[in-house]
Every structure is written in C-alpha cells, then in structure tokens.
Amino acid sequence: MMKKIGLGILGLLVVLGIWQRDLISYGWMQGKGQLHIIWNTQPISDLLANPTYPDSLKQKILLIQEIKRFTVDSLGLDPSDSYGTFYDQHGKPILWVVTASQPYALVAKTWTFPLLGTFSYKGFFEKDRADTLVAQLKRDTLDTRIGEVSAWSTLGFLNDPILSSMLDRPVGDLAELIIHELTHGTLFVKNNLEYNENLADFVGEYGALRFLAMKYGKTSVAYRDYLARKDFYGRYDEHVLRGARLLDSLYRTFKPQTPISVKDSLKAQAIDQIVTSSDTLTDERVEQQARLVKKRPANKLSRPNNAYFIGYLTYRKQQNRFRQEFENKFGSDFNQYLTYLKKTYPSL
Q: Considering the entire predicted model, what is its pTM?
C-alpha cells in the first residue's frame, strides 16, 4: 500500500514538473541569482574598518543606516535587517526587468508566481535570458521593454544588501530608494502590483523630504535639489500619463477591420507627438558648487512603445490618490495613515 502511495506521489511530482517546467526553471534561476549575491556580500563593518575604502562611500553607508533608523522611529515602518551587508556590482546591472503590452491596447502581459501573486513584469539576473524572453514576446507581436534595475526588495524573506550602485546616488535619491524598498517589507498586497508600487513611491518621496528636512534643513542644497527633482518628475509623470490617456483613446477607436498599417501609422503619430512635446519640460536643480538654479531641457524621450507607458501606469498612476487620502482623510498624519493601511489591506 505504501509503495503504491509513494509511486502515486512520484507520478504526481513528475506530472507537476512537466506542467510547470518553465516556472520551476525560472524559480531555480532566480534562487541561484539571489544566492550568488548573498554569498558574495560582505558585512558593512568590514568596509567601514578598511582604511583603503573611500571615506565618501563610507559616509553613504553610514547614511543608509541613519535612513533605516528614521524609517522605524519617524515613519513607523517595520524594523528590517536589510542593508547590513554590501554587494559590489563591479559596474554591472544587478537585474533586468522585462515588461510587455498588447500592441494596440494598454494591456500588460502578466506572470503569476506562487505566494507572491501576479506581476506585470518578469525579472532576470542573467541578461541573455531576458533577451530570450523579449524575442519570444516580440514573436507574439507584443510591445516589449527591457530595463536595468537599481534595487529590489525580497519583501522581508531575505536581508537585502546595499548595492554598490546605490552609493553613486545623491542623498535625496538614496533616501527615497531605501524608504521605497523598506515600505515593501512593511506592506505588500498580493496580486496588486500597481497599488504596491504607487504606495512605495509615495512613501519613498514623502519620507525622503522629511529625512532631508530633519538632517539638513529645508534651506539646504540637498533638500532644494531633491524638491526640484521631485517637482520635475511630477511634471514628467503627468506628461507621460497624459500620453497614455491619448494612446488609450486612440486605441479605442480601432475596429477589428482597421488595417494594421493604419493602426501602426496612427500609433506612431501619437507617440511622436508625446515625444516632441516633452521638450517643453524643464528641470531645475541647485548646482552643488555655484549654488545657482539652472534651467535645462528635460532629456528627450527615446522612442517609447506601449510597454513604456504600462510601466508608468504601474508605478505612478495612483500618486494623487495616496496624496489626497493622506492629506484630506488623515490630516497629513503619516503614522495614522500607515496604521490604517496595515489594518485595511492584507499583507504577505
């Protein structure tokens, strides 16, 4: 009897392995990538004690520890053991993320993973695997985009390291990044990627401003630079989101009988209009040495496709919703707002 049960379980596992071969292969690849990073990290105490390691980078590492304490003491995020180790990327990207969309609708391609839920992107530690997926998606006539990732969160399952690329960031950008990733470890709603990323963006930006004001003051270069950056990207976000609405309206006019050549032509014209009009945006930053405000045109959009706009809809569409709820319903009391979010939405 036990032999039959064992053979039955073995048969079930074989069938499951064949059925979910791609998922198992992907999970193994991701696990291997994570372990490679973990095995090649070093304690930050070793770097801080190393007399040959640059003092400027040591200051950034100490700053990250200060930001971590701030997220717990002042923002109320959950304590985390992340960022106690360091991983040297040797100038290489840490991760590549693939997104895809229908060619004539802003509808994202999604992937579902056990426990975590459904995502509108797929990450790879190996560039050639990301390229292989992009080629496959293009054969399926989808719009695709592959982007390099500067940081990621394991949602508290592992202790995330400081990445060497983080230390190149200005103070405000670094604070926003760390607070964004630690927010994921505090609140992550299954099957709601757009909600999670918009919330983490909101908390990251709000927390960065509070941290900079506390540490440097609101008249400091660090605070004013970050505020100027935030204002610029707020305008840029609105520009791209308007573009997404323009494309969505266009796609809704397409009929099944509309020729592909006509769809492609109208789509290209709309995207060209979005790209060209981005030149009207300006970026105002305080120059670190001259302490003068300099206006410069925003970097012109490279030729985007639907996958690019899907990314913005995922990360930035709900920003006003969080801000208005925070200010109007909770009187800008962040601790009350975070308590409400934890109670209202189930987390992993």
A: 0.79
